[in-house]
Each structure stands twice: as C-alpha cells, then as structure tokens.
Amino acid sequence: MNTVELRSSAAENPRHGMSRIVERVGVHNISLLAALAILIVIFGFLRGDVFFSSRNLLNIGLGITILGVLAMSQTVVIVAGGLDIAVGAIVGLTTVSTALAIQQTGSPATGIVAGLVVGGIAGLVNGIIITYGRVNAVIATLGTMAIFRGIAFIISDGQSIAIFSDTFRFIGIGRILGLPLLIWILILTAIAFQLFLARSIVGRNIYALGGNPIVARFSGININRYRVGIYIMSGVAAGLAGILLAARTGSGQPVSGSQGLELEAITAAVLGGCALQGGKGTIVGALLGVAIIGVLNNGMILTSVPTFYQLLAKGSLLILAVVIAEYHLNRT
Amino acid sequence: MTQSDFFRLDNVSKRFGVVQALDKVSIAFQPGELLALVGENGAGKSTMMRILEGVFQPDSGTVHSDGAAVAFAEPRDSQKAGIRVIHQEPEIVPNLTVAENIFVGEMPRLAGLFLDWRTLEQQTNAVLNTFGMDRDMHPRQLCSTLGPAQRQMVEIMRAVRAGGRLIAFDEPTSSLTDDEARRLFAVIRRLRAEGASIIYISHRLNEIIDLADRIVVLRDGRLVDDSPAAGATEQGIAKLMVGRDVADLFTRQSKDVQEIVLEVDRLTTDQVKDVSLTVRKGEVLGIAGLMGAGRSELAKGIFGFDRRRSGRVVMNGVAIAQDSPQAAIVAGIGFAPEDRKHEALLLFRSILDNASLCVTDKTGRFGFFSRRRAMDIVAPLAAKMSIKAPSLDEEVSKLSGGNQQKVVLTRWLARQPMLLILDEPTRGIDIGAKSEIYRLIGELAANGIGLILISSEMSELIGLADRILVMADGRVTAELTRPNIDEAAILHFAMPQSPSSPGDHVQ
C-alpha cells in the first residue's frame, strides 16, 4: 500500500471505457437496468403492438409518478434506518383533505397547502411516536396507518369528494411542452431528492445516522431531530403524492392509497438497493425500482393477468428483492 | 495422579491480527488445587479461558487431557472432557425458572414429550441443598426476580451440578456482596476438596492470596510467574503483573501551565458517581482503573453522550448547558471512543467521509457538501498522520486497526478541539502506529490542547500523563501526580474494596 494519495481513486487510475462506466453507474444499477430490459423484451414480445406505442409509454410514465415520489421519500427513510408503512394511508388522508379544502374555499392553492400540511402533521406524529415514544418504526406506522385511514373516512363521511376546480385538475391532466405536468413534477422532485440525499450535508448525515446511529451521535449529529425531520419529510412527500392523485382522479377518496402503495414504495426502494438496516440506498436506484414496478404493472394489465394474481407478483417481488439484498450483504 | 494425568496447556499460542494474545504458555492444572490467574486487562486470561472452553483454537501448542493431546472444536467437546467455565456475566434466561435454567438441555421428560415438573423440582431442590441455596431461591422462581449474586449462583450450579474436573471462575465476586462472596468461597473450597481443579481469575489480590494454592501471572500474553501462593504479597504480584520492560516506550516532559481548559464539577451519571476533575491547557490527564471502573462512562458523561444526573461540565469557564455530544463539540471537546468499530467509524464509508464528519460546517457550501473543501481540510492532516491507504476514497473497513485509529484522530484534528478525550487509543494496534500516536499526544499537548487519556496500559499512562486519576466503582479513588506515580500505587487504588476477607471463613 502506498501512503495516501490526495486524489480520488477514479482520477488516479484512469480505467478503460467499459469498466469506468460500470464503476460510475454502479453494479447494482446495471443489474436493475438489465432486469428492466428483460421485462421490456418479454412484454414487447407478448404485446409489442400496444406496449411500445407512445400512448402506452406515457401511461407507464403517468402510472409511476405517484409511486415515484413515495419510493424516493421511502428511500430517505430507509437510508436513515427507519421505515414508514403509513404513507399509503397518508396519501388517502391528503386526497380527502385537499378535496375538502377546495370544496370549502374554492381555492386550489388552499387545497395544495392543506394537503402538504396534513401530510406534514401526519409525519410529525409518526416521528414523535418513533423517536420519543421509542416505538419500533414498523409497529408505530402500522398503528398510525389505521388511525390515518380512520380519520380519512371520518372527515369524508366515507364518501368520495369531487373536485370542480379546473386549475387544480390541470395538475393532473395538463401538459407543458407536450409532456404531462405530472411527469414534470416527478422529474423536478427526483432532482431535488437526488441533490438532497447525495449532495447536501444533511443528506450525508442521514447516511451516517442510518449506517451507525452511535457514531452519528458521537459526531455531534442531533439524531432525534433528524429522525423526526425525516418522518415529517416522508409525510410531506406523501401529501404531495396525495395532491397529485386527487388532481388526477378529480376527487378525494378515503380508500385511495389503500391499494398497497406503501408495499410498492418499499419494494421499489429495496429493489433500488436500500438495505433495511439503514445507511445504504440511492435515489437513482429507487427510480429504477419504480420503473421496473411500472413496467411490470403495465405489462401484466396488457397481457391480461387477473388483478388477484398481480398481487402475488408484487408481494413476491418485495420478498425477492430483500432476499437478494440480504444475500449481497452477507457475502461482502 | 501425576501431572500428565490431568489437564495441561503445552506451549499454547494465539494471535489476533497484530496482537499476540498468548505466547507459548504452559500450565499444568492439578486435581484438588486452586490456581489463581492474574494479569492486567488484555494480558491473555480471557483468551486462555476461551481456548480451554473450545471457543478459540490455539494457533500452536496443545491442550492435554489425561495425558493425551485433545483438540476442542467447540464448547461441547470441552464440556465432555469435564471443563466448566463460569463467566463474569451470568448467561441465564431471565424468563425461565431457576429449575429450567439449572437443568437446561437435560430436563426430565414424561413420555418423551412433556416436562416432568415433579422430578425437575426434586432434582433442583437437591442441587440447591448441596450449594446451600435452598433458602435463597425456589425451583419455580423466575430468574428475572433474582439479584445479580443469585443469578451468578444459578450459573455456577448449572455449570457444576453434574460435576466438573476443571472449573474456571472468571471474576466471580465482582457483583457479589460480602456474605454472598463468603458462601461462594465455601462452594469453591468444597469443589476443590472433592478433587476438582479450580482456576480462579480475580483482580482482588488479597482475596487471591487467601484462597489460592498457586498463583500464575500473565503479562502481554506471556507467563511471567508460576509459584505457590504461600508467601506471596500484593505488591509483589502487582509488580509482576505490570512489568517494567515496556515502561520507557515513551515519556514526555510536563509543562507548567495553570490555565484551566476543562473543569468537571461533581459529575454523576448512571455509572459515574460524583467525579470532579480539571484539565489544564497542554496537560495530559491520565485515567486509570480496571475494566468496569467507569472510565469510559466518565468520558461519555463529560462528552454528553450519557445523560448527566447532576454536576457541571465547564469548558473555558463556560458551563455546557445541554448534555449532548453536539453541545460538547461546539464547546471544543473531541472524543475518540474505545470501541472504534462501533462507536467511532462508519466502516463502509470512505476515509474522507469519516474524517470530515465533524467539520460539516466548514465543508458545506449553501448546505451542499463540497468535496474540494473537505479534501483541503482532510488531505494535509491525513498526510501528516501518515495514513496508509491507496486513496482517501478507500473504505475504512479495509484499513488496519492502526490506520483506522488514525482516521478517527484525523477527524478530531480537523475539528481543532481544545480538549481531546482519548479512550484506549492504542488498543489492538501495532507498535509502529502506537508510537506515532504517542508522538501526536505529545505534540497536541505542546500546542496547548488539554488531553484526557484513558488507558489500561500502565506504561502508556505513566509515560504520557502529567497527573493520573485512579477510578474504581465509578468513583475517583486517588489522584497521583508526578513524580509520585508508580504502578503499584495505581493498582492499589484501582482495586475495588474487597467484599470480604475469604480467609476468615471456616467451613
């Protein structure tokens, strides 16, 4: 071994094209891309006529916006060493809150603020229970999941609430420069999350916190504040997802988000390389995980796989992703 | 029986990385004899126990049983050979009953399926009677309701109920009261009278001199003395334990500075009681004590990692209001904890990430991490510390112990603290890195930084410290100042007050 060199290893050992690309993108992301390619080939072979149509590709894109936001925020939570399974319920609660706010005030801006604030409060509740109540994150959010869903039913009286604001509906169905607004929002959110987790000081401290909370504390990181903050972030992100869902469907529905959104979000995050022990995971990986789920969902519909069997596939995918992750973890 | 008939260690060596835990140690264990094993922390006592138990296998040398060489692949093998080791921390299941804990793995059954409670209770009562514990506990009592001493007795009864030919006790009295210790000694004497060979590990030298037939002293993995207990003195044993040959690895000159940087006033946490101390600028304050004396806990209390129950920590005349590491760091305190891998390092992240963890206020640009700024801070320090690695992007888990410790120290050098607490900074690292760390300590002190050095290595403490506080049971028992520092004095004050004088107990 040499005495320390003051440059990065990449700059120090210029490697040849291919292996440099591999290093840059990461082995894990390359296997995700390969999995995605295999799925595309399979569905392209089975229903190529429909699958590759621009309309269908746009459908896939639209289908994954909401999941995309949730998978990215879930990635941050998992990297910090936590888990938030209440996000689906928070989505349902915010669609109802947003719809009610717009119904009462007629102002779409109020609806958006209401959705984000309700999501943030829900996240704060989770954060406080987990951090100061010292409740296991899975159990805490399992409990609040039922509570949030209950509140959504109570305030909506179990009814779907229609939204008649065209301005608000524009978020869900409008286009800018030919691309649906929803996809623009996903792109912007993704950039924000990537900068936050990979580049910001707070993001790097989140990796430290999830990697080893004792070390993080010894290093002067206020781990309680970080934990609460991360669940608030997760709640706000779920609020945003709820707003997008309400804008797309034109209504607030207490049952929305209860179709296993949290399952898909966690699956995407873990597929994307998150270690459930914390400290590991990337936004890019999560987005690739989302793309795999999106293509799988779309492909199963195109090839007429019955809904009930789609559930089997999604559940198996989560288990499979964790098994693969654990296998890699134990091997290194 | 002759020597070769019973248990014997023959030239046993064991190495962990750079640390030679045992170096060609030969001991013969005689039936009906109580052999006391003494040595400083890290002298090799525990490693020897683990080898006898079959948890570790020796690198070279052999264990002999009844004249034949044996190889214990796992604890079950050594148990079959009649070896029992009773650990310091009782390994019992709190939510099972006394009877179940004593007979775990060998419980009487009915029809091969159901637990035969009646037989189990009878058997347990018989064991409790033998050990004189029948009035202290009931077979059906849950172990969670027992005190520490009673738990220890359950552990002992489980280990020796079916007899044992070589029975080792690892610091059995550390959690016992006077009376409990006395009863334990009676049990040990009876086992010895029945022909078992006893190994007894303790730091309480007076206890050992009264109880033992023979005393074996280990130091740095080597056997330095093996002689009859009769005529042994505490001072004599202490001197053998410490040795002098490494005493002059490093010495530094004290400076006479009066300006106080840290003042701790009657600090009390869950493990530390009423500790007051001061550290001056450029001074090295050594903290000595045995394992469990509360040294690391004192450091964690000062650093705000453990909650303060009462007392104040004052840096440069200003009391630190909050007890959080964050507040301590802001006030100018740095802390390199003892357990590098679990408390100091993010093992799967780079040297750069680890070294820049506490200077995020300087490596940030509008809240974003600037790799260039981090490099500017870390690279010169890493070079100064001569960290050996291909680059600063190397994962810390791939470095040697010495280089890992240098990464931790680099982190604090980057932070430029006014007071640095080092908890066992040289544990498990090679002699080269050790001397570099000694040099760094001298340099930091010369630059006016106050240091607290916690160490189990006497030579290190005596060579580096201007003053030494000795701790036992969470309290400071003595303050020694140069030139009145010597090993025997430190050991004397480090010994917890013996719960009893075992000699005056007559069975």
Walk me through the structure.
The complex is a heterodimer of chains A (332) and B (507). By secondary structure, chain A is an all-alpha fold. Chain A has a single domain, classed as ABC transporter involved in vitamin B12 uptake, BtuC (Orthogonal Bundle), CATH 1.10.3470. Helix content of chain A is 77%, strand content 2%. Chain A has 15 helices and four strands. In chain A, strand 2 (175-176) and strand 3 (179-180) form a beta hairpin. In chain A, helix 3 runs parallel beside helix 14, helix 6 (108-131) runs antiparallel to helix 7 (137-156) and helix 8 packs across helix 12 (223-249). Chain A is globular and about 55 Å long. The relative contact order of chain A is 0.18. Mean pLDDT of chain A is 89; it is low at 1-14. Chain B is an alpha/beta fold and 507 residues long. Chain B folds into three domains: 3-244, P-loop containing nucleotide triphosphate hydrolases (Rossmann fold, 3-Layer(aba) Sandwich); 260-332 and 417-495, 3-Layer(aba) Sandwich (Rossmann fold); 342-416, no CATH class. Helix content of chain B is 33%, strand content 25%. Chain B contains 18 helices and 24 strands. Chain B has a six-stranded mixed sheet, sandwiched between helices. A six-stranded mixed sheet of chain B has the order 18-21-22-15-23-24, with helices on both faces. In chain B, strands 2-1-4-5 form a four-stranded antiparallel sheet, with helices on one face. In chain B, a hairpin with a 2-residue loop joins strand 16 (310-315) and strand 17. In chain B, helix 8 crosses helix 18 (487-494) and helix 14 crosses helix 15. Chain B is globular and about 75 Å long. The model of chain B is unreliable at 245-249 and 498-507 (pLDDT under 50). Classes of the chains: A mainly alpha (332), B alpha/beta (507). The interface between A and B is large, with 33 and 42 residues.
